[in-house]
Specification:
Thrombin, subunit H; 12 strands; globular; 6-stranded antiparallel barrel; alpha+beta
């Protein structure tokens, strides 16, 4: 009798564990959210000036950006723009750096480039907003998307997150999953950083940090050094949304219904 009870208890425990794993797998929204992220992110690149055939050569991917509306506005880290595109503040061509982003058409093997300009940056929060010369939304085949942005500033430690960007000069988007390690004012009072338990790489700065449902809660900005080695930091979206509002940049979620992309 005791053997029978013990056997049923073990079977029940195995069933509960299996059911829990199954439900977790079914409710993990990251695969779908990654697909949406790929429609909204772009590599922010330094290229050669276009030749007579309109061709360019990518010299280096300096960071990642993601669209906040359907008018060609995208955000990235301020240091991506200020460290590599300083000449652009003078509004003139440069012999050695032509600012472009890339969009899939419709695969990453056939990408279309767009020149960007009109960057506004705030080094205090390490964020910049730029605008493409030509509006990518005019090309429906590119499937340009815009992500849902959250103004929430508090998150539980251990919350699963992901970021998608273009590290190490790789022209296809790379996604990494992590967990929130802490949220707080670690370096400057009033400046909230989201710390995640995974490092990032050159080219990831400016990438969206998002939850399993695709909601963007931050923007990747730097990897940890010294005692912070192995961790990465993201700026909270509340500060970024405030920055966009101050510069009259309307995000997709705030557009009138008739102007929202179907």
């Amino acid at each position: 009798m005791h053997y029978y009870v013990a056997r049923m208890w073990v079977i029940g425990l195995v069933f509960i564990i299996s059911a829990s794993c199954f439900l977790n797998a079914q409710t993990d929204g990251f695969p779908e959210s990654v697909k949406r992220a790929k429609e909204s992110i772009v590599p922010v690149a330094c290229a050669t000036w276009p030749d007579e055939s309109h061709a360019i050569t990518i010299k280096e991917i300096e960071g990642t950006g993601f669209f906040v509306n359907y008018g060609g506005n995208f955000i990235t880290a301020a240091h991506v723009i200020n460290d590599h595109f300083r000449w652009y503040t003078k509004d003139r061509p440069s012999a050695d750096c032509f600012p472009v982003i890339y969009l899939a058409n419709p695969t990453w093997l056939k990408a279309r480039w767009f020149q960007f300009h009109a960057c506004i940056s705030d080094t205090n929060i390490d964020v910049a907003v730029c605008k493409t010369v030509e509006d990518p939304v005019l090309y429906p085949e590119l499937h340009v998307g815009s992500l849902r942005l959250s103004s929430k500033t508090t998150f539980d430690d251990g919350t699963p997150v992901a970021f998608t960007g273009f590290p190490q000069n790789i022209l296809v988007p790379i996604t990494s999953k992590a967990n929130i390690a802490a949220v707080g004012e670690f370096f400057v009072l009033g400046r909230i950083d989201i710390v995640i338990d995974k490092t990032n790489w050159h080219g990831i700065s400016g990438a969206p940090l998002y939850l399993s449902d695709g909601t963007v809660i931050g923007m990747m900005r730097q990897r940890g050094e010294g005692l912070w080695d192995g961790l990465a930091f993201a700026r909270d979206m509340a500060a970024i949304l405030k920055f966009l509002k101050e510069h009259n940049i309307t995000v997709a979620d705030d557009l009138p219904a008739e102007k929202k992309r179907k």
